[in-house]
Amino acid sequence: MTEQTYYTLPIRIYYEDTDFSGVVYHAAYLKFFERGRTESLRTCGVHHSEMLKRDEPLAFAVRKMTTEWITPARIDDLLEVRTWFVSAKGARMNLRQEIWRDDQMLATADVEAACMSLDGRARRLPKEFIESFGVDRRPG
């Protein structure tokens, strides 16, 4: 773990998150990571609904994600999604995410997300967003 601030989101594993054996299905982790990113943005004061109300509406799209599944989560587990901003420059931001159960890391994701207009064109991250992330402006 780095010295940077990270944001946490608790996640309880329900039946719907698992396969027939009670193990979390791999695609469910993508939803957990998404929720972690959204709540991290919200904590920084960046709300998706407000982005859509700007003079030029903006949205984020995941451009690249590298994931690693280390050990499985199971039904009824209480997990913690940890997310922190690594860098932000131009239209891109890089985040690191980890999913933990107690003191055991279960999965990781390195994410590159792009800021874009609603017609899919890249747009610079607003300066106030970058400042709220508390990161360097260089790639991570």
Notes on the structure:
The protein is an alpha+beta fold. Helix content is 21%, strand content 39%. The protein is built from three helices and five strands, in the order E-H-H-E-E-E-E-H. It has helices at 26-43, 48-51, 127-133, and strands at 7-12, 58-69, 78-89, 92-101, 104-117. Strands 1-3-4-5-2 form a five-stranded antiparallel β-sheet. Strand 3 (78-89) and strand 4 form a beta hairpin. It is elongated. The mean pLDDT is 93.
Describe the secondary-structure layout.
Blueprint: E1 7-12, H1 26-43, H2 48-51, E2 58-69, E3 78-89, E4 92-101, E5 104-117, H3 127-133
Antiparallel strand pairs: 1-3, 2-5, 3-4, 4-5
Instruction: Calculate the terminal CA-CA distance, rounded to whole Å.
Output: 15 Å
Percent helix range: 10-25%
Outline = elongated
**Strands across the major sheet, in which order?**
1-3-4-5-2
The parts where pLDDT drops under 50 for at least 5 residues are none
Mean pLDDT across all residues, rounded?
A: 93
Number of strands: 5
**Main sheet summary:** 5 strands, antiparallel
The H-and-E topology, N to C, reads as EHHEEEEH
- DSSP summary: helix tally: 3
Percent strand:
35-45%
| Broad structural category | alpha+beta
Please state the CA-atom Rg, rounded to the nearest Å: 16 Å
Could you give a quick summary of the protein structure above?
With 140 residues, the chain is of the alpha+beta class. The chain is built from three helices and five strands; from the N terminus they run βααββββα. β3 and β4 form a beta hairpin.
